[in-house]
Every structure is written in structure tokens, then in C-alpha cells.
Amino acid sequence: MSSKLKYELPIVGAIACSMNLNDISSLSNDPDVEFISFDGKVFAQLDIVNESIKTNFPKEKNFTGEGVTVAVVDTGFSPHVDLIRPTNRILGFKDFVNNRNKPYDDNGHGTHIAGIIAGSGYSSNGKYTGIAPSANLLIVKALDSSGSGSTSDIVSAIQWVIETKDKYNTKILNLSLGTPANSSYTSCPLAQAVEEAVKSGLTVVCAAGNSGPSKGTILCPGNAPSGITVGAIDDNKTPEINDDFIANFSSRGPTKDGYKKPDVVAPGVDIMSLSNKNSSGYISLSGTSMATPVVTGACALLHQKHADLTPKKAKKMIVGCCSNIGFSQNEQGAGVIDLEKLFDKDYASKYDTISFNDPEKFDSQGVFGGFIDDNIIIILLIILLFLWDI
């Protein structure tokens, strides 16, 4: 059998390699192989935003994300002054695409995401400030200049974040990316990597996807039960929520396994954040990719307040603070996050004794057979070189 190893991916019990069709056929009959998953392509998917979700409330209490590190797996980072002034908060950079050492972003998506999470507003005199403007960032490039990347690159990136989380004090992982989820999350290496990241102690925030408005369009890894999956609203450029509506592009639930997703929604239309074109510019973008770091920033504030916060408790608190805007749970999840409620002392106290249940499912849809035993699963990610011009 002729093959070329690309990655060993122990967090999902997998290897990534390339091989010819005949070898793939032979391998599929091997009793030690649980399933074969093709190494598919994955794609990248603030002034009013801060008012809409009431970030002034935690900031008035001096919760700005200080001391909390957020890992962003995306297209990279272009050194923008809003992330390096008044202090440089980029703790590390890892490149799984071109293996470069110095930070760069040849697409712009990752820089925009980083700014929504932790931009200081330095270049705009505070007008375009991130949700957690004092948070630290760990930048991991796993998407290329076109905004796409392979499943194996991203799983490897997540694995690296897990392995280095103690070194960088990483608490949260932002994944503003996705690939079509055509089967159970148990057959998606990305979703399995998210589950492992949560088990390791990371709060993981995933984009729902931009495949709406049809039902059942949640992408992977947004279909991972333990992640916080975020859909997008259009806030009509007002801080009030009574005129908010679900963005047409925002992916809807349920998942193939019947889980109720998205978990929450956040502003994701015409979001102003950092541009990679120069070191002080801004650009407006839309997508669940933009809504996701809004929630990630909120998680950074929450982790600053509660140093011993677990991913399960963080998710429960984020979901529980939401305001209903009148759409179905398939569209809005629990609703729009509300940081005034999230940081109210009475709200926080009830979560000290609350019982945490497993993620909710629709009883009438989907079949879920539990997690695959890490000791027996072997996933083979096949790169189809004869189909893709790479």
C-alpha cells in the first residue's frame, strides 16, 4: 500500500494521509478502520454591537478580558495597532499553511475576527472597540489566502491549541469556519476535535454557518454538541433588540443528530473591525463568522470574572443570559446574548448551584449513538489530489 502521511491526529484517533483509489478501497475493508473521511475543504464563514449586547455593563465593572487568552484558528493576523497598542497582546503565532514564523494574514478574515474579540480601539479613539479589549490572543493560521483550508490542517491546529493551552493560559477557542455537515457529528473530525477541546477545558465557540435560511443547515464543527454555536442577527444598526431579526444567510438547525442549534445569536451584519490592508484601517464584513467572536469576547469577560469556570458552565451561563427576539429555536437558539444580565450578581449566583444537563435534542429527529471510543476509532482523512488542483 502506497501512502504519504500528512498528520497524526491523536485527539480524534486519526491520521491524515494521501493514497490512491485502489488503496482506499482496500483500506475500507480493514476491520480496524472505523470509517474514512475525505480531507474536505473548510471555509471562513463594533460600535453598535457593543451597545446591542450591553458590553458597557461588564466594562464598568472592570471586566475587559485581562489575563484571558483566546485562540483564533483562522487566516492569520496582520499586525494592527489595535492589537499591539497600548500593549502587544499577541502571545503567539503558529502557521499550519506555509509554516512561516512571523504573523501575517493574506486574506483578512482572521484579522477582522481578532479585532471583534479584542481590538483596543486605539486607531478609532475608542469607537471600534472589541468585546474584550484587554484579552490576549493566540493566532493560529490554518486557512489560506482564499479563506479555505483542509480538515486535517484545522484538526491539527486545534490539537496544537490543546497541547499549548497551559503555556499560554488559553481558555477559549474561536472557530469562525465550517464545512457542510452531511452526516452525524460523530463522523466529522472537526466536530470530534471540538469535543476533545472542550474535554481538555477549553470553551469552544463555533460559527453556525452561512447556509441559511433553510432548516438543517448547521455546518461542522457548529454541529458539535458541546461547543457554543452562534448564528447571526441583523441589529438594524440600533442598540434596541425589538427591531432585530435573523440574518437570511444564518444557518438553521436542527443538526443531523437532532441537536437544537444554534445555541445563541449575536450581531453579524455590517460589523466594523480591523482591516489587514494597513495597520490602522477598518472594514465592514457580514456573516456568522462575525457573530461568533462577539460571543467569544463575552466568554473572555466571563472567564476573567470566574477564574475556575468550566466550558460546560460557561456555555450554560451564555445561553441562559439571552433575550428572546421572537424567532424559532432553530433560528435564534436561546436568543441574543445580553451582557448586562450575564454580569448581574443575582444572575451569576444562581449558577453556583445549577445542575448542568447534556445538550438538548429534538426527540423526533436524528439518531445519536454516543461518543466513539477513542481507543478503537481509526479515522483516515484522504486527500484527493486527482480532484483538487493543489
What does this structure look like?
- With 390 residues, this protein is of the alpha/beta class.
- It has 2 domains: 3-39 and 373-382, no CATH class; 41-350, 3-Layer(aba) Sandwich (Rossmann fold).
- Helices cover 27% and strands 21% of the residues.
- It contains 12 helices and 17 strands.
- It has helices spanning 21-28, 47-52, 56-60, 81-84, 109-118, 151-168, 189-199, 288-305, 311-320, 329-332, 339-342, 345-350; strands at residues 3-9, 14-19, 35-38, 41-44, 69-74, 90-95, 136-141, 148-150, 170-175, 177-178, 203-207, 228-234, 245-246, 264-267, 271-274, 282-285, 379-382.
- Strands 5, 6, 7, 9, 11, 12, 13 and 14 form an 8-stranded mixed sheet that branches. Strands 1-2-17-3 form a 4-stranded mixed sheet.
- Strand 15 (271-274) and strand 16 form a beta hairpin.
- Helix 5 runs parallel beside helix 8 (288-305) and helix 6 runs parallel beside helix 7.
- It is globular and about 60 Å long.
- Residues 353-357 and 362-390 have low confidence and may be disordered.
Tally of helical runs: 12
Fraction in helix? 25-40%
Q: Output the CATH class name of the largest domain.
A: Alpha Beta
Give the total of beta strands.
Answer: 17
Descriptive keywords:
390 residues, alpha/beta, 2 domains, 8-stranded mixed beta sheet, 4-stranded mixed beta sheet, 12 helices, disordered C terminus
